[in-house]
UniProtKB/TrEMBL annotation:
Keywords: Coiled coil. GO terms for cellular component: cortical microtubule. Residues 137-147, 170-181 have a biased composition (Pro residues). Residues 130-191 are annotated as: Disordered. The lineage of its organism: Eukaryota, Viridiplantae, Streptophyta, Embryophyta, Tracheophyta. GO terms for biological process: protein localization to cortical microtubule cytoskeleton. This is Protein CHUP1, chloroplastic-like.
C-alpha cells in the first residue's frame, strides 16, 4: 500500500510537470508569433511615417497659398486633411486618392500685373476717358497724310511732291528726351583730392614702429552638399512628382504670362528691376517647385531671369550697405577699443563688397547689356561713389574717436592708439583715392597730437 500511494503521487506530479512543459512550449510559440507581429507593425509604422512626411511636405507648400484660394477651396482642403488623418493603417490607397484629388483641386493662378517703371510714371501723366486713347507723349505724332490731289499726280510731277509736302507740313517735332539719369549716378565730389601728407606720415609712423599692417581676412562659408541631397531625396518621392505634374498641367497659362513679361522686360533704372524681380519671385512662389516646374517649359528665359535677379540682389545688397554706413553712429558710452573695432569691421565689409563688384563688373555689364538690364549703377560714378563717400565718413569718426581718447587721458598705449588711427586713415585714403576737406582737417589734428606723443 505505501508503494502504491507513492506511485500514484509520482504519477500525479509527472502529469502536472508535463502539463507545465506543454504550456511553456505553447507560450514560447505564442511569444514568437507576437514578436513577428511586432516587427510587421513596426514596418507598417515606418511606411506610414514616410507617407506622412510626403503629405506634410506638400501641404506646407499649399498652406503658403491657402490665403490666396477661395473660401470654398480652403474649406475643402481642411476637410480632406481631417478625413485623411482619421484613416487607418490599411487605407493607404484611399489616402493616396484623397491626396491626388487635393492636388488637382488647386485652381489656376491669376497673376497680378507687374509694377510699372518709375520713369514712365514720372513722364507720362495718367489719362482717363478719351485722353487715354491718344498716342503717348513720349513718341512723336505720325505725319499727316498727303492731300489726295497730290497723290493723283502723274509720275513726272511726283518729283516735286516732296518739296510741296515738306513746305506745307509743320516742322518735325524734336526727338524724345533721353531717359532721366539714375539718382545713383552722381559724380564724386570735386573736393576729394590726394593728400600726400597722409602717405608720408603713415610711412614715417610704420617705419618707426616696425609693425606692418596686417589685414584680417573674411572667412567664407563652406557650401555643403546637404541641400542637393535633400532635393534629390524629395524628387524621388511620388507625391512630390505628382504635385509637379499637377502644376505643369494646370498652371500653363499663368507660366506663359510670366514668360512674356520676362522676355519683354526693359528698364532704365535698376530700382525698377529690383521691383520687377520681387514681383516675379512672389508670383513663382505659388508653384510647388519653381525650378522643377519651369523645366517643362523650354521657352522660359532662364538666363535673363537669373541675370535680373543677380543685378537686383547685387544692387539691393550694396544699397543696404550704403544705408548701414550712412546711419552708423559712434556711441561714446562704449569703450574706445570696442568702438574702433566696430568701425574697422564695417570698413572691411564695405571694401570687400566694392572689390567684389569691381572684379565681376566687366563680365556682368556685358550680360546686362545683352538682356537690356541697367548696368550704369556699377560704374565708379554710381553707387560705388556713395560707398566711398561713406568710407570717408567712417574715417572721420575713427580719427575723432582716437583724438578724443588721446586728449582725455595719457597712458602707455597712446603710441599704439595713434598708430591705429594713422593706419586706418591711410587705408581709407588709398581706398577712396583722397580725402575731402573735413577728413584732411581731422587728419591734421591727429598729426598735431603725434608730435607730443613721439617727442
Amino acid at each position: 500500500m505505501p508503494m502504491e500511494e507513492g506511485d500514484v503521487c509520482f504519477a500525479h506530479l509527472r502529469s502536472k510537470l508535463q502539463a507545465c512543459l506543454d504550456r511553456n512550449c505553447h507560450l514560447e510559440k505564442e511569444n514568437k508569433a507576437l514578436r513577428q507581429e511586432i516587427l510587421h507593425l513596426k514596418g507598417q509604422i515606418t511606411k506610414l511615417q514616410a507617407q506622412d512626411a510626403d503629405k506634410s511636405m506638400i501641404w506646407k507648400k499649399q498652406q503658403n497659398h491657402i490665403n490666396k484660394n477661395s473660401p470654398s477651396q480652403e474649406k475643402q482642403l481642411v476637410q480632406i486633411d481631417n478625413v485623411e488623418e482619421g484613416l487607418g493603417v490599411d487605407n493607404s490607397l484611399t489616402r493616396r486618392e484623397i491626396f491626388c484629388s487635393a492636388i488637382k483641386a488647386r485652381s489656376p493662378r491669376v497673376p497680378r500685373p507687374p509694377p510699372r517703371p518709375t520713369t514712365c510714371l514720372q513722364l507720362a501723366p495718367k489719362l482717363t476717358g478719351k485722353e487715354s486713347q491718344l498716342p503717348s507723349p513720349l513718341m512723336p505724332p505720325p505725319p499727316p497724310p498727303l492731300p489726295s490731289n497730290l497723290q493723283r499726280r502723274s509720275s513726272n510731277s511726283l518729283r516735286k511732291v516732296p518739296e510741296v509736302a515738306e513746305s506745307k507740313l509743320p516742322p518735325s517735332p524734336p526727338p524724345p528726351p533721353p531717359p532721366l539719369p539714375s539718382k545713383l549716378q552722381v559724380r564724386a565730389s570735386s573736393s576729394v583730392r590726394r593728400a600726400p601728407e597722409v602717405v608720408e606720415f603713415y610711412h614715417s609712423i610704420t617705419r618707426r614702429d616696425g609693425k606692418p599692417e596686417t589685414k584680417t581676412g573674411i572667412a567664407g562659408t563652406q557650401v555643403t552638399s546637404n541641400a542637393r541631397e535633400m532635393i534629390g531625396e524629395i524628387e524621388n518621392r511620388s507625391a512630390y512628382l505628382l504635385a509637379i505634374k499637377s502644376d505643369v498641367e494646370t498652371q500653363g497659362e499663368f507660366i506663359n504670362f510670366l514668360i512674356k513679361e520676362v522676355q519683354n522686360a526693359t528698364y532704365t533704372e535698376i530700382s525698377d528691376v529690383e521691383a520687377f524681380v520681387k514681383w516675379l519671385d512672389e508670383e513663382l512662389s505659388y508653384l510647388v517647385d519653381e525650378r522643377a516646374v519651369l523645366k517643362h517649359f523650354p521657352q522660359w528665359p532662364e538666363q535673363k531671369a537669373d541675370a535680373m535677379r543677380e543685378a537686383a540682389f547685387g544692387y539691393r545688397d550694396l544699397k543696404n550697405l550704403g544705408s548701414e554706413v550712412s546711419s552708423f553712429s559712434d556711441d561714446m558710452r562704449q569703450p574706445t577699443g570696442v568702438a574702433l573695432k566696430r568701425i574697422r569691421a564695417l570698413q572691411e565689409k564695405l571694401e570687400c563688397s566694392v572689390h567684389n563688384l569691381e572684379r565681376v563688373r566687366d563680365n556682368a555689364s556685358k550680360r546686362y547689356k545683352e538682356f537690356q538690364i541697367p548696368w550704369e549703377w556699377m560704374l565708379d560714378t554710381g553707387i560705388i561713389a556713395q560707398l566711398k563717400s561713406g568710407s570717408m565718413r567712417l574715417a572721420k569718426k575713427y580719427m575723432k574717436r582716437v583724438i578724443t581718447a588721446l586728449q582725455s587721458y595719457a597712458s602707455s598705449e597712446d603710441e599704439e592708439l595713434m598708430l591705429q588711427g594713422v593706419r586706418f586713415a591711410f587705408r581709407v585714403h588709398q581706398f577712396v583715392g583722397g580725402f575731402d576737406e573735413e577728413s584732411r582737417n581731422a587728419f591734421q589734428e591727429l598729426r598735431k597730437l603725434a608730435s607730443s606723443i613721439y617727442s
